[in-house]
Design brief:
The C terminus is likely disordered. This protein is of the alpha/beta class and 265 residues long. It has ten helices and ten strands. The protein is 35% helix and 23% strand. It has one domain: Rossmann fold.
């Protein structure tokens, strides 16, 4: 479903600020794979996500989604078959529009765009049924402005919107990091529920090692723009946080130093 071949990206090339963001990245996700991605700050995790979504273009390499070369396809066209949830709960929704209007836009993502946001009785009932799965009483607030929702409610809505059309790829970019622990747990459980229900091919970046272990069937670790470790399903089920720390030390010859990562243990 997703294939990255030899992806390279350098920022500020040939300047004193040159930074190798991605260094010869190879990654393949089969249909239904749920891969979690960990790594310290600056490891290249978000840059890789931006490559897949089309927000950035690689200097070298090829990106395929469902067998189609999308390396040069612009972000707005990739959005027809990619769903994405960001770290910031404000980023995935339109705050001045109602819950219903936001859902209508998401519902029509992979259809021909028009200026009209049509919501008939049948679609409204579908929206309510979908919102009921969140257990946040949002199904009774369809006409509420999204900007009035809490961060957790907005992130739950963003997640629902991103999965509405059953995208080929679901990208989750630290989507629980900005939430308090109880809301983060709610969104984590909702993520597992929605991904499993529709068997969505998912790539999730997280700083929380335990979350990376608990969710998904595969795990990769990144450092300095490279994928330095891949944990396959047969090994992931018995994986412990200490195992990851020792693996990093064995591969890099030094301890993993990242305040955010260590605090998320």
């Amino acid at each position: 479903m997703l294939k990255l071949e030899g992806i390279n990206k350098i920022f500020n090339e040939a300047t004193p600020d040159e930074k190798i963001a991605l260094d010869n990245i190879h990654l393949e996700l089969k249909t239904g794979d749920f891969v979690t991605v960990i790594g310290s700050n600056g490891a290249g995790k978000s840059t890789m996500m931006n490559m897949i979504s089309g927000a950035l273009t690689p200097d070298l390499g090829k990106i395929e989604i469902n067998g189609k070369d999308v390396t040069r396809l612009p972000e707005h066209k990739r959005s027809h078959f990619i769903g994405r949830v960001f770290q910031d709960p404000m980023a995935g929704t339109a705050p001045t529009m109602t819950i219903e209007e936001n859902l209508a836009i998401a519902y029509s993502r992979n259809q021909k765009r028009t200026l009209r946001i049509g919501v008939d009785k049948k679609r409204r009932e579908f929206f309510k049924e979908s919102l009921e799965t969140l257990h946040l009483n949002l199904e009774n607030r369809l006409n509420a402005k999204v900007g009035l929702l809490s961060g957790g409610e907005r992130q739950a809505l963003s997640l629902l919107m991103a999965t509405f059309t059953k995208p080929n790829i679901l990208l989750l970019d630290e989507h629980t990091a900005a939430l308090d622990p109880s809301r983060a747990e709610l969104i984590t459980n909702l993520t597992k529920q929605l991904v499993e229900k529709d068997k969505l091919t998912t790539l999730m970046v997280t700083h929380n090692m335990q979350q990376a272990i608990d969710l998904g069937n595969r795990l990769i670790m990144m450092d300095k723009g490279q994928i330095i470790l891949e944990v396959e399903p047969s090994l992931k089920k018995d994986l412990q946080i200490d195992d990851l720390m020792l693996q990093f030390q064995h591969i890099r010859g030094e301890k993993m130093v990242s305040d955010r990562t260590l605090l998320s243990v």
